[in-house]
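Sample intake sheet
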Amino acid sequence: MGRRNRWDRKTASWGMTAFLFIALGILLSMAFSHVAVLKGLLLGGFRILRPFVWGLGIAWLLLPLMRQAEKGLFLPLCSRLHGGGRKLARGLSVLLAELALLSLLAAFGSLLLPQLYRSLESLVRNGNVYLAKLSLWLAARMREYPELASSAGELLLELNTGLVDTVRSTLLPALGALAGNVTTGVYHVLRVLYHLVIGLIVSAYVLARPESLAAGAGRLLISLCGPQTAEKVRGVLALINRSFLRYFGGMLPDSALVGLMCYMGCVVLELPYALLLSVLVGIANLIPFFGPVLGAVPCALLLLMVSPPQCPVFLLLLLALQLANGCFLRPRLLGSSLRLSGFWAMPVLVLGAGFFGFWGMLLGLPAFLVLRRLLDGCIGKKLKKSDLPEEVTAYMNLLAIDPITHEPVKRGAQE
């Protein structure tokens, strides 16, 4: 009788598993056949929840600044004045972080955005004039090679047409719409203010009580997954949070400093479109390894059209900035958060750009670093269970593994 009950339970278990797999297959087939509907629902839900998503993102970015201000400034100050005052210190820290963000947004909207728009508009308006000057400059220096001068002129004409079309079709409408929405469109102003206010309220709420929100999320995770699985999930989430914070906490200041130094150098050397060149260099510097090259190419082409003799000067300035950044700034700001060779960075950046464009290049590398650390942890656990060394250096010049001592046998030692 007991054997029959065990068989019935086993049959029921297999039947339930088969039913779940069939139901999952039906759901997946329905989802793939209605991709457009699901995409519309997801985008609609994201539009509704966009202020809350931005609020969570703002809180994630401002959390290190808030903790630093609370620990280093307001908590000691409030403890001396009020004999405690932890809530007051937290409130002042949140207020300082939110004011810092609003100051940056105000500076970008009032100072940087209008100048960028004017620079791009001037570039589009005077593109043909710049091209004619460059053609004359090339013809004067290639009189002995007329065919080469003609080919170079045709190439520059194609580059100028592509650049002007890109600026005219993408950048100028985006900047013009943003500037117009902020200044003239009442509906869009109210919409932007609504998203901004809701995002700031959500971020302030999260920053005011991150410990209680984390405790509630941990309680829910443990109730759903169990203590052991919840601990693993929390470890993975902590690794992702730590890796991305270290990465962007170093890359954002580094790129801002590089852009600022580039702007100062362009102003001192009296290079045209100094702000536009600096913004391009700073944004491209967010992409590691290949970012300096990606930023230098469009800037060099722009200067080659506007003022050809100043193009080598800008390239020398950019080379000096990148050397100073690589030797002094980036090691101090990033530290060990970017321990990845160019061999792995190249396919990661290419795949990220191919699938997700600029955001794939920007987020692909820290995501790969997280995956690599998780894989290293799994490999280390497997090796430790087998009583094998976990260090990579132990497997260099490896000939075999001793079956008795489980120690690597080196090639030099065997010879």
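Comment: Residues 121 and 172 are 7 Å apart (CA to CA). Confidence is low (pLDDT under 50) at residues 180-185.
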